[in-house]
Amino acid sequence: MRPYVLVYLYRNRLRVHTAQELLAGLGVAIAVALVFATLVANSSVARSAEEIVRAAVGPANLQLRARSADGFDQRLLGDVEHLAGVRQAAPLLEQTATILAPGGRALTVNVIGTNVSLAILNGLAHSLPSAALSPTGIGLSSSSAKALGLGARIAADQDENVTLKLRGSASTLKVSAVLGAEAFGALSRARVAVMPLERLQSLAGLPGRVSRILVQTQPGREGSVHGQLEALSGGRLAVVSADQDISLLDQALAPSDQASALFAVISALLGFLFAFNALLLTIPERRQAIADLRVDGTGRSAIIQMVTFQGLCLGIAASIVGLLAGYLLSRGAFHQSPGYLSQAFTLGTNTVIGAGPVLLAFASGVLATCLASGLPLLDLRRSNALDAVYAEDGMPGSGLNGSTQRWLAGVALGLLVLASGLFALVPSAALIVCVLLAVATVLAVPSALAGVLGLAGAIARRYEKLTLLTAALTSLRATTIRSLALAATGAVALFGSVTLGGSRDDLLRGIADYTSHYVGAADIWLVNPGDNQAINDFTADRHTASIAQLPGVASVRAFQGSFLTIGDRRIWLIAWPSSTPLGLLEGQLVTGGQRSASEHVDQGGWITVSAQLAAEHHVKVGGVLNVPSPAGEVPFRVAATTTNFGWTPGAIVMNSREYARAWNTAAPTALGVTITPDANSSTVATEIQHTLGRSTGLEVLSAPARESKIDASASEGLSQLGDIATLLVIAAILAMIAALGSSIWQARISLAGLRLEGATPRKLRIVLLIESALMLSAGCLTGAIAGIYGQAVIDGYLKHVTGFPVASIATGQRPVEIVALVLATVLVISAIPGWMASRVPVTFALDE
Q1: Considering the domain boundaries, does residue 398 fall inside one?
Q2: Taking the model in full, what pTM does it have?
């Protein structure tokens, strides 16, 4: 065919079948948007953080790093500078703090203390304003200033003071500079602040201490310098690459990225199935059009050109729309908010888009559309008559014979068996298993619909007065393909919604269960603001004694914790005082017993380890794991393996005595207050706050309040999973409404025929409602059952592969809620096109 003929034919098709093409394009656009948004969102966190790390370290290629928040002696800088092969070196002190703005906004930032040597090393760029290192002020990145609501005020030359809460103390500082991209480079997009090294050392109570020393070696001397630094450290400091945080963050993001990618790929698959089912609605008409062209003498190659051209046009247009929607999603709902990682890593806030996600999402959309559009080309087989479609029962092109139905059911059963076996043998293959289950769900729909129609037919034969039910069954059997497309859309919608929505709820409930046991160790908690994991220490000698004397206080215990690096993992280290029941282990053990684990940890020399970390180091219960500490490598016996407690790199639980010995500190990172049985928690908390005074930098929280904060942080970190699940439910409802509306609109001819025979609009609406209910019940029942199985698959993946705590599927109500929500919404909204179609003029049947 000539190009203008292809354009003319497709333009004519769009004019006549606009709704069908829009429906098909909607499914493709949804799929492309989900794939693109998730790829961009997942990669943006790591890529923006990589930009920030490289900007901070400049040309440095090695670093000497402390293994505790207390750092190490700054005088070591002179020794490093005199090592053979060292070109430059610069000290750095980093502390996590909370900044309070006058308007009440609070922000947790990474405060960097440095001197001019880092600027010379080019870690802070040559153009850094001198005011940024003012001894009486603090310089904020433009991103931090914006989050605090200070950017516009400072730009107008208004002086602003902020409160810096650091290590249990509060200080008032002047904002000396707001550092934009021109002065701070990529760091301007990070939640950071900068001040002179000596000033931060004073505020943090760490005189003469630094967190790390960045080292730039001479060309070709990195290996020898690394060896000299190892000897200098004496095994008490880490000698690693300057950009180590990049690999640590990649590992920390891996489990959530895996979960998000799993959700996104399943969602994309379902989106493509939506498009496939939408195109099924057009197959009868397309098959008739192809038959007419063949009878008129059009050759096979010309028909293939026409179908391919139309598929390409639809795929390209829908994919472009999907890319635009995906971009908006990646900047909005899908924008990663890994705030739970901000205490361990300096994160960026910008969205980074590469060519890879664009090409992958676009190509997937176009390919899927072309494949689905090409189904009618099966009629071009030489064994088929030119007009074989008109010889089928019912509406031409809508038939599905019994042998095909049985063959599809057999394939669906085979896929189910294959998926079950694969999941049992390889839990990490959850993505492939879910794909097999989704395809099996679609293939099982014909049998499910036949079963529903058979049951409805038996009821109609028994109760002959149900004439409207008989009319609905006659209509459904005459348009089998259309009915299957609608039922399959419902099946896919429910499968995805139950699978992803239910799994996300199980994950959040699992984290909430752990949090409840974690904070249950005390009635009232004292922590640094925003320090949900209690890893920032503070001076508490005077606080502990005064709080213990308050009325209603039974005891005050010191809890400790920090981050430590083991290999490529930044582990969360949790140290609890002796004789404190390890309630946080409740429901979190993978191997080992809780009672024995608690007893071993309490006696000392034993720890519990996240299962993924233990597997990585090939350590089992009873084995030995060497833990790097400021005192050197310390061997511990493994009492049990656990989940990751919601901290993706993993966690270690130990006794406070062991922690104090190896980390050489008794400073708590949290104080837990237990009240007497007759005391009121709110009253005691108020008294504690009054005792601390206004100058305190600590936050006083009841156990429920702290639990709520931790759960909110976890929800923020997993927000993308929730956005995907919510969007999928919305997409499912829209796809089903669109499919049902399109089907009802196509049925106007048959409805006009019924009106011609005397049926009233009210009876027609009842017929349409019965049809919709039968189709949706068949599809939704199939999808819900398969979705529960898919939910179990993803739960197993999240627990055994990524290490997340996951609640039991039996305790969730998500499947029932989703089924009820989707069915009710679709039936209510689809009543609108049903009402309009029931009033079709009688003359419409005669015109056709």
Answers
A1: no
A2: 0.77
